[in-house]
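Job type: complex structure
Entries:
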Amino acid sequence: GQSLEQPSEVTAVEGAIVQINCTYQTSGFYGLSWYQQHDGGAPTFLSYNALDGLEETGRFSSFLSRSDSYGYLLLQELQMKDSASYFCAVRELANQAGTALIFGKGTTLSVSS
Amino acid sequence: DAGVIQSPRHEVTEMGQEVTLRCKPISGHNSLFWYRQTMMRGLELLIYFNNNVPIDDSGMPEDRFSAKMPNASFSTLKIQPSEPRDSAVYFCASSTRGGGYGYTFGSGTRLTVV
């Protein structure tokens, strides 16, 4: 089985930096992904970490520590449009034929002016 | 590319009726996934296909749910008979094989069973 833990809500102000943590337990692990979902919209891919370390994509960065079963999403220079839900997801081996993403419950980020 | 296309966008049906949700994946993507999203349970994986073959359907909640992928460009998720607890947003997503690098989700179907 698998489980992912992330905070349910985070609040911040414009221009600030926020970190959303994710811890996971899986029977097999291939990588940690992050997705963003605005109200009424579809999840959209943000980042993927298969190896330990930090991956940077513009204002967003994602970190993974495989030994700690832990990762985080770092959002810098927050903007109002960053208000959304953020999901961590693990790619887990279901069987020899393939893998699928299992999602956490999501963190709702509210950015205020 | 038009992305992953789902239909209908909204569906309201009465309990006991059959519901069919449709999905057209991105051309060239050979993995297709069906997820269900509710406030209580979040995003749940229902079933996924690789090269049109069902790989893991352990997330399908009951025998009332079935999914097919008759070809590389079309998949259906059917609920028969539907129940109020099936009310949720159903997402279809596609990716290239080994798609931990990124799934592309459709806009979803918001299903309400009354």
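Summary: Chain A has no helices and eleven strands. Chain A has a mean pLDDT of 92.
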